[in-house]
Write a structure and sequence with these properties.
Layout lengths: L15 H5 L9 E3 L6 E5 L9 H12 L3
Antiparallel strand pairs: 1-2
């Protein structure tokens, strides 16, 4: 009989915010949201208007419902 506890590889700890970060995101200062001022997942040098996830979602809802 084999020991089943050793049958699987170790799973690395999940990084929930790492999955949401845009490609190329790096550690360091973050850009502020242009609507609410909260830090975003984008680096401080990111070009364009940066939105936090909450404001981005709200903006998408406004656009979708503007019909």
């Amino acid at each position: 009989m084999t020991d089943e506890s050793n049958a699987y590889c170790a799973v690395p700890a999940a990084d929930p915010l790492g999955a949401l970060a845009p490609a190329g995101a790096q550690a360091g200062p973050r850009a502020d949201c242009v609507l609410c001022g909260e830090p975003t997942e984008y680096p401080a040098g990111h070009r364009g208007s940066t939105l936090c996830p909450v404001c981005a979602w709200q903006q998408a809802q406004r656009i979708a419902c503007s019909g």
